[in-house]
Description:
The structure is a homodimer of 200-residue chains.
Chain A: H1 3-30, H2 33-40, H3 44-51, H4 54-78, H5 83-100, H6 102-108, H7 111-118, H8 123-144, H9 153-172, H10 180-195
The structure holds a DNA duplex (30 and 30 nucleotides).
Amino acid sequence: MSPKQQRGVATADLLLDAALRVYAEKGEQGLTVSAVTKASGVSLGSLYHHFGSIDGLVEALTLRWMGRMLGDVVTALQRSRTARSGIGALVRAYLDFIQEHRDAALLVHSPAADRKGMADGNQARASQEAPVSAFAAWFQPHIEAGEIAPLPMPLIESLVLGPVIGLARRWLSGIEDVDLDEAARILPERIWRSVSAEPK
Amino acid sequence: MSPKQQRGVATADLLLDAALRVYAEKGEQGLTVSAVTKASGVSLGSLYHHFGSIDGLVEALTLRWMGRMLGDVVTALQRSRTARSGIGALVRAYLDFIQEHRDAALLVHSPAADRKGMADGNQARASQEAPVSAFAAWFQPHIEAGEIAPLPMPLIESLVLGPVIGLARRWLSGIEDVDLDEAARILPERIWRSVSAEPK
DNA sequence: ATCTTTCTAGAAAAACACTCTAGATCTCTG
DNA sequence: CAGAGATCTAGAGTGTTTTTCTAGAAAGAT
């Protein structure tokens, strides 16, 4: 990588890092162009050169962290052999991530994330669907092996991820009644019951 | 209610209705102060008198529809006698609502909704916690009766609502692979397996 | 009848995202 | 190794959007 490109990447990183700091400190409202340029020391022109718009910057930031989170989750999945242990690993990886990167997780779980990620068929889709299809790819053999019930994949995803995401949102929003350790202990067993092929 | 108050409420309603129309037509970006004042025929001053800010207006709109949605769901719950049928009624009520009020549901499921609803301890909390605690109140007896497993209430809520919300978000975002009728048939049984007290 | 409060109105101010031109730094080719 | 071309940095300037502020109309209270 040439020095010029290096500098470009470094500038983009400065902006992304600064944007997350600003978001953590001042929230969604405070995440303005001037706040980010001040916090990063990078000029307005550079911001627009690299990201095109403030939404572009937020989208890039969201995708970066969404990618990291889904990467953690998929890695945890792929290390697991049985469907049951995979669900446990997934839940732990997800909850670990939001505890370790609370601010980033808040951004990823924000409404903007849904929009940006899904709205128009841009590169967002690619970087999201890779992990999502990895998710489906991991479950497929377990369906065929008779461990997981042969439900439509969207339903399996909702049953497995829905409770975890719901709990994560609740914890992220600052509600005090959520004990993530307890959840990590109890949820996998319960999710397993909902998607397993065994008769009840 | 005095005529003056009546007019005030009518004006606020005009603004809320117009805001939803604007949102439905032009999306989140298009939901500006001037668009709402034009669409409603109400002046700028009135908007700020009633809602204080554009965010205040959006928050009020979100809470109004969130209240209606949770109201539908809780009503469906309360008509059910057994835990199992309650879960089925809840799922159907939820999915019916998002189909019937797609635009409002999009707003309610947007990121802004999480923020606004939970962030600061304002009246938002009250209008949300009423239905939520109604939810808990309905489940409590079924836990004590041994139908539902004695899990912490946040976990029960996540297990029951998480999959439904996840699927709803997916459908609302326009992904084509979700069949809500099929989901309404399959999900209740699966959710029931996850929270029921019976041994597996 | 006048005083007070609530509501409506829109001009003016402030904040904001974004564009545009200029110039610096690096690469690559003749 | 000179200089043409590409990429990146810089910030003043533009247009739009939110918000504030002052004024006045309508209703109820005394």
